[in-house]
Amino acid sequence: MNKTRWLNEKETDTWLALWAVSSWMPTRLDEQLKADSEMNLHDYFTLAQVSLADEGRLTMTELACRTQMSPSRLSHVVGRLEKRNLMQRTPDQEDRRTNIASITPQGWEFLDCAAPGHVERVREIVFDALTAEEAEQLGSLMHKILVKLNPPTLPRA
Q: Is the pLDDT assigned to residue 60 strictly greater than 60?
């Protein structure tokens, strides 16, 4: 039988702080996006992930991996973005079973308007609280933890 490796006091404090940040960060970013752009964080993140892809296009399967959404939930999100004429789905010309999500010209315009406020909020919450050295350390530490989580795809900038 394995012996439980309990967290010490400092580890517990660190774990609880990490949990709180991972819980509150999406809430605060969602508030800003809704107030400034009338869009929730999941929809914005989906649009942003496609914008980072080659030619602003991703298969729905790849987009589901990058956003950590089930195919059903992603379909609803992309449907909302399509209603706003920000994204479109089209069958892949090489594999008609696959749908490609792509950003429309209006989607690019939307991101041009929404991204500055979103980036400013991220800067206020994360980077304004840290020195440049601390920000670099945070990035390094987050990537170490992320690798342990073994996601199917790693986030890219």
A: yes
How far apart are the C-alpha atoms of 73 and 12, rounded to whole Å? 34
Instruction: Say yes or no to pLDDT of 39 above 80.
Output: yes
State the burial class of residue 50 (Cβ atoms within 10 Å of its Cβ: 0-12, 13-18, 19+). buried
* pLDDT for residue 96 is more than 60: yes
Structure tokens at 35: 């107030």
Give me the phi and psi of 50, to 5 degrees please.
Answer: -65, -35
Give the burial string for 84-114 (b: 16+ CB within 10 Å, else e): eebbbeeeeeeeeeebbbebbeebeebbeeb
Domain 31-114, CATH class in plain words:
mainly alpha
Contact 52, 153 (CB under 8 A): no
85 dihedral zone (left: phi>0; alpha: psi -120 to 50; beta):
left
Is the pLDDT reported for residue 16 higher than 70?
A: yes
Report yes or no on whether pTM surpasses 0.85.
yes
Rounded Cα distance, 99 and 56, in Å: 14
